[in-house]
């Protein structure tokens, strides 16, 4: 893998690659990692895996290893068949002083998931899955999930993302990696919570019909544009991997 912006000679070592994606020291940071086709599609046949590549999977594993917690919407959890993160799936040597694997936090307004799914039932005690939900989730369903996951209610009729991010930070999870989906990315952007975007562009045309990486659903106005600064661009086998940053308080 080569760094083409800012230009840098030679292939990147693992240490150099990890340095490029290091989180700011001490700051609460919400980073999103997304993949899209050359024509902007966020998935192929409903899943992002059709857009992935060895380069993308390498950075995916690195970002998971660096994160304190992984944030995902319920739709993404269902479509991608999420399971707890396994130690062999992430880069070694990145988690000194932390649990061996990061927990996953699921954003779900009504808790329309199965508490017996592996994501909840098989999560290790030191990285229990976290459920971020709203008051619309029936009390019986919240009780059903409480046996396998930490259930946090952060809003009456919708998940208050500012409160949800605050709840994660209060647990010591300040390096937050959002893996989507498009609706959650749009809501984080609209709320002004997104601090970084790591974006992989796959050399593939997906054609019409597929959704884009950020899609508003029931959001007023244009969602609020957010200026970004291009931090770097990496390349391997026609795949481009970019990291953008935005200045945020917190």
Helix/strand layout:
Elements: E1 2-5, E2 7-11, H1 14-20, E3 29-37, H2 54-66, E4 69-73, H3 74-79, E5 104-107, H4 118-121, E6 130-133, H5 139-146, E7 150-153, H6 161-170, E8 175-178, H7 182-190, E9 196-202, E10 229-236, E11 239-245
Parallel strand pairs: 3-8, 3-9, 4-5, 4-8, 5-6, 6-7
Antiparallel strand pairs: 1-2, 1-10, 9-11, 10-11
Descriptive tags:
250 residues, alpha/beta, Dihydrofolate Reductase, subunit A, eleven-stranded mixed β-sheet, 7 helices, 11 strands, 23% helix
Word description of this protein:
- The protein has 250 residues and is an alpha/beta fold.
- The chain has helices at residues 14-20, 54-66, 74-79, 118-121, 139-146, 161-170, 182-190, and strands at residues 2-5, 7-11, 29-37, 69-73, 104-107, 130-133, 150-153, 175-178, 196-202, 229-236, 239-245.
- The chain contains seven helices and eleven strands.
- An eleven-stranded mixed sheet has the order 2-1-10-11-9-3-8-4-5-6-7, with helices on both faces.
- The chain starts with a strand and ends in a 5-residue tail after the last strand.
- The mean pLDDT is 92.
Which radius of gyration do the C-alpha atoms yield?
Answer: 18 Å
Strand content: 15-25%
Instruction: Kindly state the percentage of residues in helix.
Output: 10-25%
Choose one word for the global shape: globular
Derived structural class = alpha/beta
CATH superfamily name? Answer: Dihydrofolate Reductase, subunit A
Helix run count: 7
Following the backbone from N to C, one meets helices and strands in this order, namely EEHEHEHEHEHEHEHEEE
CATH architecture: 3-Layer(aba) Sandwich
Mean pLDDT: 92
Number of strands: 11
Contiguous runs where pLDDT drops below 50 for at least 5 residues:
none
CA-to-CA gap between the ends?
Answer: 33 Å
In CATH, what is the class? Alpha Beta
In order across it, which strands form the biggest sheet? 2-1-10-11-9-3-8-4-5-6-7
The total domain count is: 1
- Report on the biggest sheet: 11 strands, mixed
What is the CATH topology assignment? Dihydrofolate Reductase, subunit A
